[in-house]
Amino acid sequence: MINAASAQKRIELTPTYGYQFGGKANYVEGSIKLQDAANYGGILSVEADYGVLAELSYSYMETRGNFIPYRGNIDPRQFDLNVQYFQLGAVKELMEDDFRPFGLFSLGATYFNPKNNDIEDVWRFSITLGGGIKYFISEKIGIRAQGRLLLPMYFNGVGGYCGIGTGGSGCGLGVSTAVPLVQGDFSGGLIFRLGE
After folding, report:
1. What confidence tens digit (pLDDT) does each residue in 109-153 have?
2. Which of 12, 46, 52, 163 has its Cα between 20 and 30 A from that of 156?
């Protein structure tokens, strides 16, 4: 069992490997379906508070996209691309023991990089939600398994208002976003624990 004193200040480095669901996006001209594929990456976790870790994560997937047009005057097409997630977030561990369930939230950017020169690269703001378990075999080595919902987004618009009335005055700001593609993954890795 890991005692509380040794867990107060810690850094965890976790190389990961898993399986990512490609997802489907609908556009005016047609739909794009990304094939499911393996992904790999890494996670750097630094304990920020009791049971809460700040995390920097990266994942990479090589996949193939299929464009299916809605109209007959556009040809269907296939293309290879890479999907990369760069995320900064937080993990909340639900127990302080060798076995630790956790929840996670992160935000950052997703990079869609087609290998065809005539298709543009795309960057999207993204968030992830997920959870999993950690199991520590020893003071320095553990196993991590997790599932995440991956949500790249684009912004539709920003609006603001100000008003004065009998009840007083006020101002507000609204941001509209959309999720064109919903992805998910299951991954795991070996935790290497550094620090005290």
Report:
1. 999 999 887 888 889 999 999 999 999 999 999 999 999 999 998
2. 163
pLDDT in tens, 69-85: 888 777 888 999 999 99
CA dist., res. 64 & res. 37, Å (int): 9
Per-residue pLDDT tens for 2-31? 554 444 578 999 999 999 999 988 877 888
Q: Is 160 helix (H, G, I), strand (E, B) or coil?
A: strand
Q: What does the radius of gyration of the chain's CA atoms come to, in whole angstroms?
A: 21
Please provide residue 121's backbone torsions phi and psi, each rounded to the nearest 5 degrees: -70, 150
Residue at token pair 């991954």: 187
Write the CB contacts of 138 (distance below 8 Å, at least 6 apart in sequence).
none
- Beta partners for residue 91, in sequence order: 53, 104
Scan for tokens 């999720």, then name that residue: 179
Distance CA 133, CA 104 (A): 11
- CA angle 43/47/48 to nearest 5° reads 120
